[in-house]
Design goal:
Blueprint: H1 13-24, H2 27-39, H3 43-71, H4 75-85, H5 93-126, H6 133-145, H7 148-166, H8 169-198, H9 201-209, H10 218-231, H11 238-244, H12 252-280, H13 291-302, H14 306-339, H15 344-364, H16 381-408, H17 411-418, H18 422-449
Helix pairs in contact: 1-8, 1-12, 1-14, 2-10, 2-12, 3-4, 3-9, 3-10, 3-11, 3-12, 3-18, 4-5, 5-7, 5-14, 5-15, 5-16, 6-13, 7-8, 7-14, 7-15, 8-12, 8-14, 9-12, 10-16, 10-18, 11-14, 12-13, 13-14, 14-15, 16-18
Bound molecules: 4-fluoro-L-phenylalanine.
4-fluoro-L-phenylalanine binds near residues 23, 103, 236 and 324.
Length: about 450
């Protein structure tokens, strides 16, 4: 099914919102957010992340959705087409390329962590009874330090992603997201209640919401920017591709707000579920990629019904990850389908296989594993890929997208597409013309210069 053909549209506003929220909400919220917040010292990072998400993220979501809906092709095709219509350089198509490539790189390591969640679902079925902090830590390092389990689960996760994308928009993407997202939300609330009743909840609240602005280094600010873009799926072609399947009668402004609100709510809920346990059991908040995997299992091992709740949690987390990974595979697939006329099944198979291969490096690059000692600019393979996409490609992609619509696309065309009130439009326009490019540029500059 090609973008732009009749079937390749969302069947309703609700399924579109679920798909976009599905793309936004994922490992970025539940795995990455707590670990980044933990490493950056908590509340100051959280506040900057929230400010970026709403002030810059929402206007950029609106921008990408409207570009996608106007172009109705893959991000590469849409950007080239709109640039041509506006009589601008075809070089603007590079924004599309950077998105498709970035999504591909993310997919390669996202699927590895997605595999971890699948593997932990199986571990949860066996039960985490009696696990203490040391036990949970060694369980995790043992798991990522060996080759077989992580690679098999990476393969299974990528296989599921490929299967759904191969089935197309209504047959695959929509069906997958409509049930999973509400279920995950409900379960997270339950976990927060549990953490509030049994864990070090006051410490967690203080950690997440009482800022110490002394901790706000340029590195923390760029991390917060990268985190907010990553979490909202910005600048990676995903949102633009989903915009291409969007009907003209859906209002883009309220949709973008809904997506961002759902996204940051889930991130905060994840923080509130995880940090009370982290503090209660003396786990290091800056524990890195293993934080979720080393904290929650302890709680599941102790709570009544923990076996079921733990299994459900990792099942839903896997699903949240899958509704994001399909949006990471979709941009490249829609490009092959559209521009190369390769059918959807073959495209999905080709891209997924390539991303799987690249992901092997991330899986084996974990501490204690075969490539665990490899360092790229001082970082592990997975961290280096994340740095390239989150801290470089996403901010730059977002900045150029904002510059493009702010300065090189006709104002009237954008106004028609967005259908906002005058005041709302002026606000959006100021952000994309000035605030977003300047803010991103300054953050960038401060990291490179300071
Ligand atoms: N937003 C997803 C998450 O938070 O897990 C990850 C993601 C999906 C990033 C799609 C980028 C993207 F294009």
């Amino acid at each position: 099914m090609a973008a732009g053909s009749d079937q390749a549209n969302w069947s309703s506003r609700w399924t579109f919102i679920m798909a976009a929220v599905g793309s936004a909400v994922g490992l970025g919220n539940i795995w990455l957010f707590p670990f980044k917040a933990g490493q950056s010292g908590g509340a100051a990072f959280v506040l900057v992340y929230l400010a970026f998400s709403f002030l810059i993220g929402v206007p950029l979501l609106m921008t990408e959705l409207s570009l996608g809906r106007r172009g109705r092709m893959s991000p590469i095709g849409s950007m080239k087409k709109i640039a041509a219509e506006e009589k601008r350089s075809p070089l603007w198509g590079l924004i599309g390329w950077s998105g498709v490539l970035g999504a591909f790189i993310i997919l390669s390591f996202y699927s590895v962590v997605g595999g971890w969640t699948l593997a932990y679902m199986i571990k949860a079925i066996m039960g985490f009874q009696g696990l203490d902090a040391a036990g949970a830590t060694s369980m995790f390092s043992d798991f990522i330090g060996h080759a077989t389990e992580p690679l098999v689960s990476h393969a299974i996760f990528m296989g599921i992603t490929m299967y759904i994308v191969a089935r197309g928009v209504q047959g695959g993407l929509e069906k997958a997201v409509s049930l999973m997202m509400p279920a995950l939300f409900g379960l997270l609330v339950l976990l927060v209640v549990y953490a509030a009743l049994t864990g070090a909840f006051a410490d967690a609240l203080a950690f997440l919401f009482t800022p110490d602005f002394g901790k706000l280094t340029p590195a923390v600010v760029i991390d917060a920017l990268g985190q907010s873009f990553f979490s909202l799926s910005l600048a990676m072609g995903s949102i633009m591709t989903y915009g291409a399947y969007l009907n003209r009668d859906v209002k883009i402004g309220p949709s973008a707000l809904t997506i961002a609100a759902a996204d940051s709510t889930v991130a905060l809920l994840a923080g509130l579920a995880i940090f009370p346990i982290v503090f209660q059991f003396g786990i290091s908040a800056s524990g890195g990629p293993g934080l979720v995997f080393m904290s929650l299992p302890i709680a599941f091992g102790q709570m009544p019904g923990g076996q079921i709740i733990g299994t459900l949690f990792f099942a839903l987390l896997s699903m949240a990850a899958i509704t994001s990974s399909i949006s990471l595979l979709e941009p490249a697939v829609s490009y092959l389908e559209h521009s190369w006329k390769i059918n959807r099944k073959k495209s999905a198979l080709t891209i997924a296989a390539a991303a799987f291969a690249l992901g092997i490096l991330s899986a084996l690059g974990q501490e204690g594993n075969m490539l665990g000692n490899v360092r790229i600019f001082g970082q592990s393979i997975m961290d280096a890929k994340g740095y390239l996409t989150n801290n470089i490609m996403m901010p730059l992609g977002g900045m150029f997208t904002a510059l493009f619509v702010g300065w090189f696309v006709s104002r009237k065309a954008m106004a028609d597409e967005l259908a906002l009130t005058d005041a709302q439009f002026r606000f959006w326009y100021t952000i994309v013309r000035f605030v977003a490019p300047i803010a991103v540029f300054l953050v960038f500059l401060s990291v490179t210069v300071l």
